[in-house]
Design a protein that fits this description.
- With 325 residues, the protein is α/β, with parallel strands linked by helices.
- It is 47% helix and 15% strand.
- The chain is built from 14 helices and 13 strands.
- The protein is globular.
- Bound molecules: pseudouridine-5'-monophosphate (PSU) and manganese (II) ion (MN).
- The site of pseudouridine-5'-monophosphate has 18 residues, from α4, α13 and α14.
Length: 325
């Protein structure tokens, strides 16, 4: 066992967000100097995940999108904090070469709570999902995180429920996303979020967004008309003492929304291929994303990029408002 795991086992320190963590955790979680500095100065920071780079989008488009997401934040004077597992560390804040590596290597493990320890222990390359990025954000003291869409309850199999829902139930981080992919059971996912006490704030909408489309009419009870209002609601939830994550659900811009019929046909074709291919576990979502893109003639892939970048912009604006106390 290495020294870093043996020393300071009983030393507890306050992290940047004011909660207590063990020093040995701190030494496995490496937060870049720039991000540490920004958090210390209460400047806005937005966490970004890496599974959408390694498993969600094809290469080299994935690298362009990941770098573009960072530059959108920088243009807003917000510090990007892309998370990944590299050389035995949970890293928060990557350089462009590391982003390129995640986007081009075939050896990246999709990492959630159930295999985070294993990827750290074996020092392999790992991409963080919504769940593990929320964990990285929480441990670093980052309050806002942008992604494409969260995982949820899978269609046809109530037993396949993404650990993203557990993370949302357990970790106080705001996840800015375009709702849930229609490869999942969206009404059941919304019910699960309600049961877990996770607020779903519709951003300029009262309809739950469905990733590639603006949504088919599942009503939301909370709406924010601008970033400031979203930040006010997010803060109040935590200030009262609730500890869950929260969703800011941002619809894909209307003009970029894919036709509902095209999505439905592509999803049902892909779901039947899934059954034939015998794909299981955490390979299901990446398989379906790829198939839906093929079946829609690339329309959903284009929309996926648009919605990610739109969410990043909104997350940056929300983080600025969160930082304005
Ligand atoms: N958003 C995207 N593309 C993705 C994802 C989100 O636009 O690939 C990833 C996230 O990392 C999320 C994961 O956590 O999909 C869901 O995987 P699963 O259903 O296996 O929990
Ligand atoms: Mn699953």
């Amino acid at each position: 066992m290495e020294n870093r795991l043996l020393i300071n086992i009983f030393v507890i320190k306050k992290n940047l967000s004011g909660s207590y963590i063990c020093v040995n955790e701190l030494s496995i979680i490496k937060i870049s100097d720039e991000i540490q500095e920004a958090l210390k100065d209460k400047k806005p920071v937005v966490a970004l995940e890496s599974t959408l780079i390694s498993h969600g989008l094809p290469s080299p488009l994935n690298i362009d999108v990941a770098l573009k997401a960072e530059s959108i934040l920088r243009d807003l004077q917000v510090v990007p904090a892309t998370a990944a597992l590299i050389d035995g560390y949970l890293r928060v804040g990557l350089n462009p070469e590391e982003i390129e590596l995640l986007g081009s290597s075939n050896e990246v493990t999709k990492t959630s709570f159930n295999n985070l320890g294993e990827v750290i222990a074996n020092k392999t390359l790992g991409a963080t999902t919504v769940a593990s990025t929320m964990f990285a954000a929480y441990k670093s003291g980052i309050k806002v995180f942008a992604t494409g869409g969260i995982g949820g309850v899978h269609r046809g199999s109530d037993a396949d429920i993404s650990a993203d829902l557990k993370a949302l139930s357990d970790l106080p981080v705001a996840v800015v996303c375009a709702g849930v992919k229609s490869i999942l059971d969206i009404p059941k996912t919304l019910e699960a979020l309600e049961t877990l006490g996770v607020p779903v704030i519709g951003y300029k909408t009262d309809i739950f967004p469905e990733f590639w489309t603006t949504g088919r009419g599942l009503k939301l009870k909370i709406t924010a008309s601008e970033a400031k209002e979203a930040a006010r609601i997010l803060k109040a939830h935590w200030e009262i003492g609730l500890k869950t994550g929260q969703l800011v659900a941002v619809p894909i811009p209307e003009e970029k929304s894919v036709d509902q019929k095209i999505v439905e046909d592509a999803v049902s074709e892909s779901l039947s291929e899934l059954a034939e291919a015998g794909i299981t576990g955490n390979a299901i979502s990446p398989f379906l994303l790829k198939k839906v893109s093929e079946a829609s003639g690339g329309l959903t892939l284009e929309a996926n990029v648009d919605l990610i970048l739109n969410n990043v912009q909104v997350a940056g604006e929300v983080a600025i408002q969160m930082a304005n106390d």
